[in-house]
Structures are given as structure tokens and as C-alpha cells.
Design brief:
DNA polymerase, domain 1, alpha/beta, 3-stranded parallel beta sheet, about 45% helix, about 210 residues
């Protein structure tokens, strides 16, 4: 089971552009692309709350609306699979290993990116955030996917790049695998429960044999 943003795909520039577009439309200061490494990952509402600042929570709903509208047309301006990910997915398919995606990105946007960037690979389940389901790190959605596929929690490898991902895996009883090519750094992954941390996607193939 993979996280999407910062794990399968480098989506940072398009997330930043969409958020900065929303901020500019609302007359608020924009942020450097690098700032979105820490603003993204906990859902769109959380991103807009943090990007707007604590004194502008009344603009969050409108900001999220502006973000979604812009992202729908610009989600692929810069987004690409990370180097090595296509080879990993090819190998997993050849080994007949089921693959799933669980993201805090809104579900329609998750489906859009997966269709347009990863449509060549047969993911068994693709799940973004759909209210009222809770966001990660709540394990509800991860466990629902495991149940749907009839695969016990201890037999899942959860691959992600943030604290949210590692905590999700731990709470669901999955093996938490942290990656260093995404949005966050090694100390965060270690502190949030990663049992293994890798620096390049091809190291994942060494783990599964």
C-alpha cells in the first residue's frame, strides 16, 4: 500500500502552485514551494488552514474551493513519478503482488493523478480522502482496504514519506516503510515508527526479494 504525494509521485510543485493561486485570489501572501513539504500531507483543509494563517480560518472553505478548481486543470503541469517508481511497479505487477494507494489528497484528485500518471499499472484499490471517513493517520481506511482484499494487516507493507504515513501503518498493524525521496526527512520517519527507511525506490525490490 502506497501513499501518493511524495511517495509515488513528485506532486509538490503542482500542490504549491494550486495553493498559491488560491492564496493570491484571496489576497493573502504566497509561500515558497519548499514550504509545502510541511504544509501538505494532512488533507486539503489542514493545508489551507496552515497556509492562510490562524487569523484567516474564515477563508479556508473558499481557499479549498479555489485550490480544487485550479488543481483540476493543473495537476499534471509538473507532476511525475519519482525515478525508479515505474520499475518498482513493473516488478510488483510481474510478481502478481496486489497494490493499493491510500492518500489524504481529496478522492477525485487522487483518482485523476492515478489515472493520468499511473494508469498503466493495475492498482487493486485507489482511495483518496472522502468525508466522512477520517484522514490518515486514523487507520480506518487502511484497514478497510486490507479487509476488502482479504489480506491480514501483518502481511501489508505501507510505503510513505511522512509522519502521517508511518503512524497510519503502525495503527493499522502494517509494516511501516519510510522513504527519503519525498517531502520529509529521516528523523521524522524514525520518530513516528518507521521500521525501515530507504533512500531510493529500487531498494523496495530488495526488501521483497
Amino acid at each position: 500500500m502506497f501513499d501518493l504525494d511524495g511517495t509515488l509521485a513528485d506532486t509538490l510543485a503542482d500542490i504549491a502552485a494550486s495553493a498559491n493561486h488560491a492564496l493570491a485570489q484571496l489576497g493573502r501572501p504566497t509561500h515558497p514551494v519548499s514550504s509545502y513539504r510541511y504544509l501538505a500531507g494532512q488533507g486539503l483543509e489542514s493545508l489551507m488552514i496552515d497556509a492562510l494563517g490562524p487569523d484567516h480560518r474564515h477563508l479556508v472553505e473558499k481557499g479549498a474551493e479555489l485550490f480544487r478548481a485550479y488543481y483540476k486543470d493543473h495537476s499534471l503541469d509538473f507532476t511525475r513519478p519519482f525515478d525508479g517508481i515505474p520499475q518498482v511497479l513493473d516488478t510488483l505487477v510481474a510478481k502478481n503482488i496486489p497494490m493499493a494507494v491510500l492518500s489524504n489528497k481529496p478522492h477525485p484528485a487522487t483518482l485523476q493523478v492515478m489515472r493520468d500518471v499511473f494508469g498503466a499499472w493495475p492498482f487493486t484499490v485507489i482511495q483518496g480522502h472522502e468525508p466522512p471517513a477520517p484522514l490518515k493517520p486514523d487507520p480506518t481506511s487502511a484497514m478497510a482496504i486490507a479487509s476488502k482484499l482479504g489480506i491480514a494487516p501483518q502481511d501489508w507493507l505501507y510505503v510513505g514519506d511522512t509522519r502521517v504515513d508511518m503512524e497510519t501503518a503502525c495503527r493499522a498493524g502494517f509494516f511501516p516503510l519510510g522513504v527519503l525521496w519525498g517531502f520529509r526527512d529521516e528523523p521524522e520517519l524514525q520518530e513516528s515508527g518507521a521500521k525501515k527507511i530507504i533512500a531510493h525506490p529500487l531498494e523496495l525490490l530488495e526488501l521483497i526479494g
